[in-house]
């Protein structure tokens, strides 16, 4: 199993995931698809893998937020008198379902505030269905107190929740607030710092089995980037892993971790600055020197796949959703993972893909890992937009 160094190993954690790592497997048909389209047919090409964070544990619709909660739960339990977890998100937020699910297993109440103005509701053809199926239904099934608001994003993440927090306190309850996506929580980045160590241990096994083509690590890691705390946690975790394994000669180089942005609302520079801050917060907690060990150069963002907006399904994203389902039977979500996989596929077809990071094993295929962060529970709300029914010939021509 994974060995975390101190002080990381001393931080309280409440595991929600299975005792074994979430699976990493090859995407054979998407690999072939990408290599067929590759601009340099003389190269050894790419090998595309995925880590199934959507299958990391037993709770409802597993996804990346659970990993974040693994480090937040001890803080909730330490407060002893908490009765209710309160959070918010878009109408089809995956995060809120994962909060509602965690509240269930902790025996706590849960109130979720869903914002009509954020995400796909605005352009949904069937607005009633959008506000009722998918994650909204799941929140209700899990017994959450679901509130829907028209108030739009004020910029101050806590503001719309203040009346709800006051109301709960007036009823004698003790609420615990978790920000949208758990990204503002100071402990929110730790789950994916831990996941970095899990990936590193899986790489060792894959390398022993000669499945990385002579290499010992993935060359690239792609992940969807919303609030960025998943990406930030991975950056911090791999930095720490590189630092503690530095003594072993020629074993580690820097994997390039690329965040695929999923919303055009905030500028790339704003996002870079935010992710650097989140990575440094996590880094400081796990034993890195935040200022010197993590720098701007560690944050790689790609903004080309944001599409029309957060939660708005565009044709290119829908096409990737179709493609993944029809090639490797891989179910993506319309808001995050389809954009992220599209980013990886675009990259895998370009000349850039054939360049390995400095220090990497320079022969053999480039190994790229796509972190599947979950979210498929929102799919039914997007029934009008996907599948888009790619003609079969089109898929065959590409593969
Ligand atoms: C929330 C979410 C993300 C984004 O994670 P951040 O840590 O906010 O960047 C990615 N994928 C899915 C499926 C999500 O639900």
TrEMBL record:
Keywords: Pyridoxal phosphate. The keyword Methyltransferase does not apply. Its cofactor is pyridoxal 5'-phosphate. InterPro entries: ACCD_DCysDesulf, TrpB-like_PALP, TrpB-like_PALP_sf. It holds the Pfam family PALP. Residues 42-350 form the Tryptophan synthase beta chain-like PALP domain. PANTHER family: 1-AMINOCYCLOPROPANE-1-CARBOXYLATE DEAMINASE-RELATED. Belongs to the ACC deaminase/D-cysteine desulfhydrase family. This is Tryptophan synthase beta chain-like PALP domain-containing protein.
């Amino acid at each position: 199993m994974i060995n975390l160094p101190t002080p990381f190993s001393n931080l309280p954690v409440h595991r929600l995931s299975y005792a074994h790592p979430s699976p990493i497997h090859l995407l054979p048909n998407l690999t072939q698809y990408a290599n067929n389209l590759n601009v340099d047919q003389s190269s050894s090409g790419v090998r595309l893998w995925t880590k199934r964070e959507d299958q990391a544990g037993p709770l409802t619709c597993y996804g990346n937020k659970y990993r974040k909660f693994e480090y937040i739960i001890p803080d909730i339990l330490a407060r002893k008198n908490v009765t209710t977890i309160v959070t918010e998100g878009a109408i089809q937020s995956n995060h809120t379902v994962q909060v509602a699910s965690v509240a269930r297993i902790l025996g706590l109440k849960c109130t979720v505030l869903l914002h009509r103005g954020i995400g796909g509701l605005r352009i949904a053809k069937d607005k009633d269905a959008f506000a009722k199926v998918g994650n909204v239904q799941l929140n209700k099934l899990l017994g959450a107190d679901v509130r829907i608001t028209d108030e739009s994003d004020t910029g101050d993440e806590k503001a719309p929740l203040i009346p709800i927090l006051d109301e709960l306190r007036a009823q004698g309850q003790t609420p615990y607030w978790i920000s949208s996506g758990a990204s503002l929580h100071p402990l929110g980045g730790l789950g994916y710092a831990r996941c970095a160590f899990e990936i590193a241990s899986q790489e060792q096994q894959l390398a022993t089995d000669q499945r990385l083509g002579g290499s010992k690590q993935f060359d690239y890691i792609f992940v969807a980037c919303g609030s960025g705390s998943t990406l930030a946690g991975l950056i911090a975790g791999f930095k720490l892993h590189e630092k503690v394994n530095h003594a072993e000669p020629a074993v580690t180089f820097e994997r390039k971790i690329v965040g695929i942005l999923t919303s055009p609302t905030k500028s790339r520079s704003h996002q870079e600055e935010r992710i650097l801050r989140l990575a440094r917060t996590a880094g400081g907690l796990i034993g890195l020197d935040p200022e010197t060990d993590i720098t701007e150069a560690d944050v790689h963002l790609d903004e080309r796949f944001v599409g029309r907006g957060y939660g708005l399904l565009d044709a290119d994203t829908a096409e990737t959703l179709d493609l993944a389902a029809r090639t490797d039977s891989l179910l993506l979500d319309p808001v995050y993972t389809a954009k992220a996989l599209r980013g990886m596929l675009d990259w895998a077809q370009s000349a850039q893909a054939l360049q390995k990071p400095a220090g990497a094993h320079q022969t053999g295929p480039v190994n790229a890992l796509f972190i599947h962060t979950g979210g498929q529970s929102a799919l039914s709300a997007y029934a009008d937009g996907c599948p888009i029914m790619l003609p079969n010939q089109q898929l065959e021509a590409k593969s």
